[in-house]
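Case study B.
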Amino acid sequence: MTIPPKIQFLEGARAIALTIANIKPAVVSAYPITPQTHIVEDLARFKAEGKADYEYLLAESEFAAASIVLGAAAAGARTYSATSSQGLLLMMEVLYNAAGLRLPLVMTVANRAVGAPINIWNDHSDAMAMRDAGWIMLFAENHQEAVDLHVIAYRLAESLNLPVAINVDGFIVTHSFESVIIPDKKTIKSFLPDYQPALGTYLNPKEPITIGGFSSPENYWQERARLDTDLKKATNDITAAYRQWKKILPSQSAIAPRIDNGLIEYCGPAHPDTLLIAMGSMSGTIKEALKENKNIGLLKIRSFRPFPTESIRNIACKCRRVAVIEKAMSSGACGPLFADVASALPNFKGVISDHIVGLGGRDVSLQTIKHIIKSAAKAGLKFW
Amino acid sequence: MPPKRLLNMKAANNKPYRPSVPAGSAMANKTGSWRTFKPIFDADLCIGCQRCQKLCPDGCILMAKNKVGQLKARPDYDYCKGCGLCAAECPVKAITMKK
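Model:
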């Protein structure tokens, strides 16, 4: 533990691919789609060059790729897949099945807008489509967080039998270069032991079981209720796993967070006047805006599912204004994050506003954030 | 009171949780009650070709030897849903679907 970890200057997709190679999945399957492609191209290259020994299965679509990793996970293997946008929508049926079957899939979602009109740039519309599937959904702000969350995701998936999706902003994280520490195989193994599920809990002819069988109305609701309970209980496991990993690989933040517990990160004063709630890479931009405004707080949501209701309530109850800044829209209603935040604050007396930014890759600049802070005094939904 | 589980979920108390049942537990669900048309097998016409056994989607046609050692098809009405595939495919029309 005396050798300092090596800092590398890497593309986000390469950083994720190197981390996955060190995590050593047994089966990788994916179908290329911008902006996820670099991740799976790199994984295919590692395999071709003999640097990795996972099974890399070519798929004819995202539906097939998701089905391949689902089958492999049912047979007791550690798996990996990645997708984006329309590809994620094509996987949707399999995603619900993976959660219902309680299979520990781990998947990177390089967030991208959903057509039409066709658009390859970043927003969170695709992730919101899988919101109700029963997956743990984590959002990364930058390269290092993306790397950390992938290691934590495997730990969560395999210890809880819940699938985990790590959302990284397409292009902004996947195609940009940043300094990042890639944990080596030994470090990862100390946190994430080799995966070997117990006999009788996966498909093995030595002790045959049936999974995903027919379920009558008397049983189906119990399974879905259990999934909900276990997802909510996972908040404790996320916090514990995050804290443990941070001890192994501490990372530096531009602004030291006041609260950093795996589910959320809070930066700013103890009693902020205005609280900004955001997810993903735009949290970095907002942190810059915080430097000039001493009474503004940023609550970055790292775990969108399970939703950190308690943590949000504890912070938001102290402020007068809450502005939700999000990159997705539930057309005909409001932003999906706003809906969740509003339902977490039933007795909130202040002003709560919804700001839809960055749809289809529209730039979220420091100026945008400053305008949002000014307009947070007025409730309602605004597009920026 | 929530209703009890019909099947004993084997892994229910294991950690981490995975809903599963022992192999073969579909036997508990006797799907024969779904049937509208019932296949009637004429043992005199049956030539024991096993075609119906191989294509039965529910795997509920058994082949057994009769007293004189000839192979004959015999359905398991507990699970036969009455799809009629066997009657349509029988080369000697030994199976008829009756309401």
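The interface with chain A takes residues 2-3, 5-7, 10-11, 14, 16-26, 29 of chain B (CB under 8 Å). The remaining cases will be described in the next quarterly update.
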